[in-house]
Amino acid sequence: MATTERARAILSGLASTRPQREKLYKFFHQNPELSMQEHVTSERILQELEATGISANRVGETGVVAVIENGDGPVVAARADIDALPVKEVSGKDYASTATQVDDKTGAEVPVAHACGHDVHLMSLLSALQAFSENKDQWSGTFVGVFQPAEETAEGARAMLAAGVEEAMPRPDVYLGQHVLASLPGGYVGTRRGPVLSSAFSVKVTVHGKGSHGSMPELGVDPVVLASSIVMRLQTVVSREVAASETAVVTVGAIHAGTKSNIIADSAELLINTRAYSSEVSEHLKEAIERIVRAECLAARSPHEPEFTYYDRYPLTDNDAQTTDSVRDAFDAYFGDEACDLDAVPASEDFSVIPDEWGVPYTYWGLGGFADTSTAVGNHNPAFAPDLQPTLDRGVEAIVVAACAWLGRRAE
């Protein structure tokens, strides 16, 4: 029970800080920012850390790393993503986002909302840092908070590595993360050994035809028909090439071709997304997509080789068994029946990029955000906005409880 008692002591101010934490959460919720553009968000995080006397530094333009050194002991790092989505919020909350922002990549002004709960994540980590800072007599070791930009575009973790994040923090003994979900009951925390989030990649495929008048298709090569054949053939990859014991998804999310009903275009573009729970299956999906596209192009007499542009690459999030067991034991002792098993989630993350680069064990758990899961919308839905409580309290509790599985009691 030492871990539980230590966590309760560190979290003793949770009730008294609740009004301030809820007010700050609403600020972040109402001021969301797109990936790699989180300037206001990171500046406010730095201000809050400075006010508590916590040492923190920028890493890159919008990443932030905070370090609390408190005597001998392990180094525990926890990560929170801080970016938002180009989505117009329709949650109905009285603190709903009405923000817009110019997208650096497209130049277009778009609505922005925290429709994936990253505001919950950053508030949970910020509050955990403040709790550890204000209760140093209850623990020993080093606690590190990593506020990571651009999870939604799979850029943030790699950008922090490129910007020298290893110079801003000691190498951790363990790396922790969490995500608020609609699939768990409100206030529950769910853990899972092994693969918990899928690997993913997207690919833009350009296939070439030969333009012609719509009334004379025999003089051209129709890229719309070619693209349609590719879409239908891709549906056989999972059903006929992936073992029933494995899980995979291949989705064609968009097709762009042509300008007018009586013009056969000279090219078509397909946007394809994949998910898998093993690197072997992911590689098979890549090979299958290229094989099928090339074969259909050959069959259609395409005049040029197809082009493949890969992007949004996410690694597999594969929870270390021993680390996950340590966190689950701590959760069971502290949360009781509200600690539960988490099913594998087909979404993807760049959380594991940094610990994988350093060879550090990690675990990533789910946080229930809605009291009524039967009516809760999923992440990325314009109406996604978790219940204010107990979500905010449970988020900080989960980080502190998990970290205390490593951070021992300070010597008298």
UniProtKB/TrEMBL annotation:
Listed Pfam families: M20_dimer, Peptidase_M20
InterPro entries in the cross-refs: Amidohydrolase, Bact_exopeptidase_dim_dom, Peptidase_M20, Peptidase_M20_dimer
Peptidase M20 dimerisation domain span: 200-297
Alphabetical list of NCBIfam families matching this protein: amidohydrolases
Name of the molecule in the record: Amidohydrolase
